[in-house]
Amino acid sequence: MQDSLLIFIGAAFLLAGFVKGVIGLGLPTVSMGLLAVSMPPGQAIAIVIVPAIVTNIWQTFGGPYLRDILRRLWPLMLGTAAGIWLNAGLLTGPYAPYGTVILGGLLIVYAVMGLSKLQFKIARRDEKWIGGIVGVITGVVSAATGVQVIPSMPFMQAIGMEKDELVQALGVFFTVATVALAFNITASGLLTAATALPGAIAMTASFTGMFIGQAVRTRMHPEEFRRWFLIAMIFLGLYLAISALIKLHG
To answer: What distance in Å separates the CA atoms of residue 69 and residue 214, rounded to the nearest whole number?
Structure first.
């Protein structure tokens, strides 16, 4: 792999880890968005998957809410895993070229929803059946793009978790989703020895970025950072979607 591409991978994961350190999420979203500029989504997710799993496991055990999270979110996680497994091949099949277009669109939707601060509420009695449906949809989206924030993130915000519980819940959910996705990409031949070096660089850069982000978080207002991050995601999503469409129909 070219040295310039390895440097680009390191920079992308340093930034993605920094974002995760500041606001508690965004490593797969940012890294997939940036890597998709220079490679197909299938190749990008093969590099993203191991750092995503490890950093999410780290986040999973960073609080006291694990039992309650599993009790409330098991339908969401089961539905997501099922959606991913049932749609294995979307990253490598005949529709794979459209993955970058979908990814760009999802980044825009995710950012616009975050900037608008739409507030949804789901009653406790409806959490499980709605969670299962949201999970299946999230799984299909993840199988095609490698990103799991839509519509799972709005759902977890809508069920009324406290801030610290939500951060831990994101770690638990993303761990389950990325492990399920890892089975898909391994079976499809995307996760190979060739991804070991870029994966190691990504892992090191991710943790470095996370530690820097956590240090910066104590000195800056996370909401201000989050706003500019979401604006940047809109422009990145537009670039990815438009450039991919030009390549498909050019």
So the answer is: 23
